[in-house]
Amino acid sequence: MLRETLPLGRIAGIRLGAHWSVLATLAVFAWILHSALDGHGGPVYLWIVAAAGAVVLFATLAGHELAHSIVARRHGVRVERIVFWLLGGASELADEPPDARTDLWIALAGPLASLATAVVAFAASILAAAFAPDGAVTLTLVWLAVMNIVLAVFNMLPGAPLDGGRVLRAVVWWRTGDRLRAATVAARSGRWLGTILIMLGVLEIVSTRRLDGLWPMLLGWFLRTSAGSELAVAGLRHRLGDSTVGEVMSSPVVAVPGRWSVDDLLRSEAASGGHRIFPVVDETGRPSAIAAWPDLARTPAPARGVTPVAAIARNLPPGAVVTADTPLADAATRVVLRPDLDAITVVDGQGRLIGIVTATDMATACDRSALGLPIGRTDR
Predict the structure, then answer these.
(1) Please, are residues 366 and 244 in contact by the beta-carbon 8 Å criterion?
(2) Which of 65, 80, 92, 204 is catalytic?
(3) For residue 380, pLDDT beyond 70
(4) Are 172 and 189 in contact (CB under 8 A)?
């Protein structure tokens, strides 16, 4: 998952964030629009209109992703956040769609929202044309309409992770009843689509001797990489099957109160128990962060007596707090666990810590499954 660097607040209760690369996207949009508006006003005015048009286009991208997220929530699928980056945006869902119908509607929501935005932009351009047929504002509204149509059409190409790939997955899932097979078909289609885009980009560069083909090559690379990741996820789901987090979690677990100082932790029994990762809990026993030996070692010795563990611990990422009945495959695909640094925390119905799953636990579960052995722990 992308790490957001620019928090954008919340809309409809959904957290929005942006990677720094989105600034480059805004600059490219503004430059493209400014070139299209050349000759329709003064330089300063055109740059202002182009910059405003780029921001509005970004807002329509946000609307596209919000449509996915809002429809997902209405169907009972939790949404972690929406993150925007160089090549667009992504709605990060905390749960998988429960059935093919839900999967289909979530996938279609974004392109339908983009088409609706295009209609509104065209209508606004007709109104603006009544006052200034060749004005920069009129042309910008037409550009926004065309860009949203392009966004909808491109996203409907049949390959994961595009919306069209989600539609393909939903259709195959509905026809076969096999969710894993559907995900595999969509991911393989995405890899082929990415390869085609890369080849088209190369042909464009060779035939025109210009660098315009770099954009489809970049999109193709992104599609191939993302589709490859989805294939890996499908394989992981196949290996882990219906196993739950509770089958592999370590419990009971040694938790560290966030109010403790680093010295308190080093003098406690937790430090002598062979543990490498320490869940940090608040006053009510709810996990809030993870502390590992490298985090503790970075604190200078003179400061360890006055530095709270909560101050040097790393906040738990989205998806790293689950219940024991959470499918292990869902937890594994939502959180990337680094050995000896991260863990998935397991809580009870009141949100209190009852166990953890480390990268070693996850790898062991996969290995045991591949060998045909029970995934659950046998030492308890």
Answers:
(1) no
(2) 65
(3) no
(4) no
**Count of structural domains within the chain:** 2
Does residue 353 register a pLDDT over 70?
A: yes
pTM, two decimal places: 0.78
What range defines the domain where residue 236 resides?
6-240
Per the domain annotation, does 376 fall within a domain? no
Kindly report, residue by residue over 186-225, the tens digit of the pLDDT.
Answer: 999 999 999 999 999 999 898 888 777 788 898 899 899 9
Is the same domain home to 162 and 270?
no
Active site residue 92: no
Q: Please give the mean pLDDT across all residues of the chain.
A: 89
Instruction: Identify whether 1 is part of a domain.
Output: no
Neighbours of 39 (CB within 10 A): 8
How far apart are alpha carbons 166 and 151 in whole angstroms? 15
3-state class of 378 per DSSP? Answer: coil
How many whole angstroms from its chain centre is CA 93?
A: 8
Retrieve residue 349's tokens.
């119905």
380 in a domain, yes or no?
A: no
